[in-house]
Automatic annotation (TrEMBL):
<dbReference type="InterPro" id="IPR011992">
    <property type="entry name" value="EF-hand-dom_pair"/>
</dbReference>
<dbReference type="InterPro" id="IPR050230">
    <property type="entry name" value="CALM/Myosin/TropC-like"/>
</dbReference>
<feature type="compositionally biased region" description="Polar residues">
    <location>
        <begin position="1"/>
        <end position="21"/>
    </location>
</feature>
<protein>
    <submittedName>
        <fullName>GD22845</fullName>
    </submittedName>
</protein>
<dbReference type="GO" id="GO:0016460">
    <property type="term" value="C:myosin II complex"/>
</dbReference>
<dbReference type="GO" id="GO:0032036">
    <property type="term" value="F:myosin heavy chain binding"/>
</dbReference>
<feature type="region of interest" description="Disordered">
    <location>
        <begin position="1"/>
        <end position="42"/>
    </location>
</feature>
Amino acid sequence: MSRKGNQLNPSSIRPSSTIPDCNQKRRSDMTAPPPNPKPEKRRILEMHAVFLGHDTRGDNKISIRHLGHCLRAMGATPTEAMVSKHVRQYEASTMQRISFDEVMGIYCSLGKHGGISSPKRKQIEADQLYPV
């Protein structure tokens, strides 16, 4: 900073965050990745229709045994271990059927395994279906 008398020169004042420092991490490096965002309303309605396709009793719930199939039909790509973990949790609480809200909670918690596949993943899947 430079001073003229007792006055500070505003052009020489810079916030500390703009001055690079070897020992200082950038702010973006220190934040956690955002959680899987909640899907838009249109997408939620589509997923609800898929969910209802797995409802065999008409009580707006599905068997926990159909959880993996339902999540995959909704566009998620959970591993068998992830599905088994959730199934065990519901079995431990003696719940055999779960609601759409509970399935959506699981869907949103899947992180990178939830939601629509990335364009690269879609291309890989298309190449497997239609080899050249």
